Automatic annotation (TrEMBL):
GO terms for molecular function: DNA binding. It comes from the Bacteria. PANTHER family: TRANSCRIPTIONAL REGULATORY PROTEIN NARL-RELATED, TWO-COMPONENT RESPONSE REGULATOR. InterPro entries: CheY-like_superfamily (IPR011006), NreC/VraR/RcsB-like_REC (IPR058245), Sig_transdc_resp-reg_C-effctor (IPR016032), Sig_transdc_resp-reg_receiver (IPR001789), Tscrpt_reg_LuxR_C (IPR000792), WalR-like (IPR039420). Keywords: DNA-binding, Phosphoprotein, Transcription, Transcription regulation. Residues 147-217 form the HTH luxR-type domain. One of its GO terms (biological process) is regulation of DNA-templated transcription. The modification 4-aspartylphosphate is found at D56. The lineage of its organism: Bacteria, Bacillati, Actinomycetota, Actinomycetes, Micromonosporales. Residues 6-127 form the Response regulatory domain. This is DNA-binding response regulator. Coiled coil: none annotated. CDD domains: LuxR_C_like (cd06170), REC_NarL-like (cd17535).
Length: 230
């Protein structure tokens, strides 16, 4: 049997927090602690050193982006830590914040509505824990329609492929979704990386950098805004 994933959960709404604890335990996760604030999350994660942190973005004491900031801080201390943040709203800069932490892998940004899709939600947690990156499809769709698109050099198919890469899908999964060969997907990905100026390197994950460019929209992310709501 695979090792049990050890989790620290952070959610300030008691009913949702208890519901998430029950859901995770039902699917074989071990919940080490359930925090109700960002400081409690930091303390619990540092004490228990979990495999995965699942946190709401909007947390006490500030009730703004405290949960996200705590997650990014934990990733700075332990880049290998898997982190999934939950949000009420689509905020592309939050996804960019996570991708910019550590090596950009083992992170997820999901809307809270996804929790209701229990099996898919659990699979996404396992994808992140296994080293993948999962970005909510609604974030990707919103980015596809933003003005002044910095990815204008990409073809329609290349943008579609990059959107699926941003959701954390493998080349095989993208090929199945688009009904093309895996070799064709590999060619599209290669073209995307070339057009974005991401040259081969042993020290960087170019797919992650491509998604980060996609999410940032060509601008530099300097931190979650104080007036935003998770």
């Amino acid at each position: 049997m695979p090792p049990v994933t050890r989790v620290v959960l952070a959610e300030d709404e008691v009913l949702l927090r208890e519901g998430l604890v029950g859901l995770l335990e039902r699917f074989g996760f071990e919940v080490l602690a359930a925090a109700g604030s960002a400081p409690e999350l930091l303390a619990a994660a540092r004490t228990h050193r979990p495999d995965l942190v699942v946190t709401d973005i909007r947390m006490p004491p500030g009730r703004r982006d405290d949960g996200l900031r705590a997650a990014v801080e934990l990733r700075a201390e332990r880049p290998e830590l898997a982190v999934v943040v939950l949000s009420q709203h689509v905020q592309a800069e939050y996804a960019a914040a996570l991708l910019g932490s550590g090596d950009g892998r083992r992170v997820g940004y999901l809307l809270k509505d996804r929790v209701a899709e229990v099996v898919e939600f659990v699979e996404q947690l396992r994808t992140v824990t296994g080293g993948g990156t999962v970005i909510d499809p609604d974030v990707v769709r919103r980015l596809l329609h933003r003005p002044n698109d910095p990815l204008a050099a990409l073809s329609g198919r290349e943008r579609e492929v990059l959107g699926l890469v941003a959701q954390g899908r493998s080349n095989a999964a993208i090929a199945a979704a688009l009904h093309v060969t895996e070799a064709a997907v590999g060619k599209h990905v290669g073209n995307i990386l070339t057009k974005l100026g991401l040259l081969p390197s042993d020290d960087t994950n170019r797919r992650v950098l491509a998604v980060l460019t996609y999410l940032r929209g060509g601008s530099t992310w300097t931190g979650p805004s104080a007036d935003r709501r998770g």
